[in-house]
Structures are given as C-alpha cells and as structure tokens.
Amino acid sequence: MKLLILLTLFVALAAECKAKEVVCYVMTENDISSKIDKSLCTMIMLSFGTVDAYGNIGLPSNFASYKALRTTNTKVLLALGGANNGKYAFSQIAASATVRATFAQNCLNVVQSNGLDGIDIDWEFPDSNERANFVALHQAVKNKLGSSYLLTTAVSVGKWLLETNNVYDIPGLSATVNFIHLMAYDMHMDEDWDLSAGVNFNAPISANSGDSLNKGIDYWLKGGAPASKLTLGVPFYGRTYQLSDPAKTAPGSPFLMFYQRQDSYKPSYNVYCSRFTSWTKVRDTFTLCPYMYSGSQWTSYEDEQSIIEKAKLANTYNLGGVMSWALNHDDYNGVCSSCKWPLLKALNSGIGRAASCSGSVPVVVTTTTTQKTTTTTKSSSGTGTITTCTSTGYFAYPGDCTKYYQCAWVGYAPYIMACGSGLKWNNQAKYFTLNLITME
C-alpha cells in the first residue's frame, strides 16, 4: 500500500513538473492590462517592441502597465518584431556578428532594467539563405541572457516556408531557445496565392490539402524539435471573405479578392460573437472548425469548442503548451455572454488547467462534414461509449481505463483523451496513476 501511494504521488508530482505553458500575446497599444486574469497565463508576451538595423530596441506603448503583470506564476517577456516590424532589421542584425552582439547586449539591458523574464523574437520571416543567420541571432541573444532569463521565438507552420523554402534549422534553433511558439493560423486568407482554395479555414486542425495544425506540428517534431519546447498557437480572431455567389457557401466556394482591404476582414472574437444570433453557423467535422455566413460575407472563426479541440492537440502530441494571438481579441468584457475571457478559459480547459465559463454555453451550430466522413468514437477496449455529457468535469471513459473524458457543457459531446503510456485513470482522484489502480 505504501508503495502504491508513493508511486501515485510520484506520477502526480511529475505531471505537475511538466505542467503545460499558456503563452498569451497581448498588443500593448490598447491598455487592457487591468482586465487581464493573470492566473490564465503562464507567460505574457508584450507585443511588440521595435528593432532597427543597428540592434537598437524600442519599447512598446503602455509598457509600464503591462510589465507590472509579472508574478511568481506569470512571467512577462518582451516580444520583438512582429508581422509589421523587424524583417529587414533582423536580417541586417543577423548578418553581422558585431551587430548581433550589440543587439544581444541591448536585450539583456532591457530585461534587467525592467524586471522582465526574457525576450521573444518574432522574425516574420527569414529567407531561405538566412537559415544560419537566424540561429546565430538567437544564439547571440541566448548566450547573453544566460540561464537566468528565457529566450523564445515565434515561427511558421506553413509548408511554403518549412518545406519549399526550408528557412528553419530546426535542430539548431531547438538547441538554443527555451520555447518555440508555432503560429498555427493564417493558413488561408483572401489573397491571390490562395484563390484556388476558395473560402477556407484560418486554422484547420486537419486538411486533405494545404496547411493544417496536424501537419505543422508533425513537421516540427520530425525535424528534430523536442515536443516539450513547442507551444501550439491558436487565433482568437476570424478571417472574412466576400463570396462570389452568396448561394454557394460551402468551404472551397469561390470568393472575390481584396475584401481584406476592408477593416472587417480579420474580426476579433469580441466583434464577431455578436453575429452568432443572426448569421448562419456551421461546424465542419473534419477540420473541427466553425464558419458562418450572411449574404455575401463568409467568416472562418473560433469559438470555445474549436479552441478546446485545438488545445487538445497539445495533449495528444505532448507539447510544452499552447499559445494565443491575442488577448485583445477575446471577449474580456463579457459583452456576448456572462463569461469574461471565454476563449482564454477554453484554451486553459483544453489542456487540463482549471478554467471554465459556468455562465456560458456554446452557440448551437449546424454540423456538417465537407471533406471527410467521420464515425462515432468508441472505446478501444471493453464496452461502452459516451456521446452526450450529463454533468461537467473529468470522468473515466466507459470500459477503458486508458482513456478519460472531459465535459465542459451539459448536453454536448465530451472531449475524449488518452491517459498516456502505462497510465490509467483514477476516477476518485481525478488523476492519472500507474497501472496499479483501476478507474472504479
């Protein structure tokens, strides 16, 4: 009995030591620092500090308010670069050992003088001839920061960059940084290069053709990145198209180009959630993503259920955690329901952290399969299935101790997960244990 207790405690402690990260990017130009629930983030990325070709660093707006979010359990890092700043500057910095050293020293100065936990480099994106320079830049910064501070980086999961142009030295980068944040979104959009895909999903979990979360994760893992260093990024925003024919609304339908030039092309969750009651909503069972349409407008979006499905991939692949872009897009004021931070709470819930929206229920959508036939999930051993939740919480899967399921809402489908190699679910402890305890 004593051995059993010790083994159970060992597994529990090991699980705690490997608790997954929840990385939260926030755009600092809007000061929502007082609204952020720090318990829902293990890292907060202040986005974005600027860089120039000489290695100088500029601090983002409202920096003082945001850096005060740092606690024992929540680290605060300065994110440098971004989609609209840094590509040219990073290229120039990385090409010179002297400028790399200057930049690295400036990173250390900023971290130490502001009481930060580290630096995040968001270079979007290096060219194929900059593979070595990309790693050299990170190495220079990490060597200067040392083990006392974190260095993380944000990267693409797109085939065009990963395979076609081979821009990342994955083993070299993995050996240098503490975490690699996979920007697993913007896979489809209203651009001429994506015209043949038609209206499509911003961040599909699976896809017969084109990019997907599964493909991106798999590439980084096969390329040599340790799963424990990868965080899976999810979007808190949608992508809107203008349909060529309002009568053709299925994914893949043709669209009119350049609708993105309008302000509404990339709506935040706190904007499009108000459309839930008036637009037609559909959930695709292959990509596990919802979309909605009204008239000629078609939007790929995220909701609590799709965020949980994405977060579950971090468990499936045993990744180091999840990442969100960006906190500003969530319903932090509870405008669309009684729940504040519904997507961030769903992201936490999906990886097993305690967070829920007790006053919120998912919007009912029509379910359809547009790409691939799916079947009802059954246990791999024993008998029994679970198709509808009758109460909320974590439970043993019927007839199979190697699985468990989570019910976030009564009356909706559960989220079924595997315990992991050599582990079984203890329904009394609501925890994994070694193969010595049953699920009774």
Account of the 3D structure:
The chain is of the alpha/beta class and 440 residues long. It folds into two domains: 2-350, Glycosidases (TIM Barrel, Alpha-Beta Barrel); 375-434, no CATH class. It is built from eleven helices and 20 strands. Helix 4 packs across helix 5 and helix 10 packs parallel to helix 11 (342-350). The longest helix is centred in the first third of the chain and has 18 residues, at 97-114. The radius of gyration is 22 Å and the shape is globular. Residues 1-17, 372-383 and 429-440 have low confidence and may be disordered.
Average pLDDT rating? 87
Beta-strand proportion? 15-25%
- Strand tally: 20
Derived from helix and strand composition plus strand pairing, the structural class reads alpha/beta
CATH architecture of the largest domain: Alpha-Beta Barrel
- Main sheet: strands, sense, barrel: 8 strands, parallel, barrel
* N-to-C CA distance: 17 Å
Envelope shape = globular
* Helical residue percent band: 10-25%
- In the predicted model, the low-confidence regions spanning at least 5 consecutive residues are 1-17, 372-383, 429-440
Rg from C-alpha positions? Answer: 22 Å
CATH structural fold name of the largest domain: TIM Barrel
Strand order of the largest sheet: 1-2-4-5-6-7-8-14
Our count of domains comes out at: 2
- What's the number of helices? 11
CATH superfamily of the largest domain: Glycosidases
**Would you state the CATH class of the largest domain?**
Alpha Beta
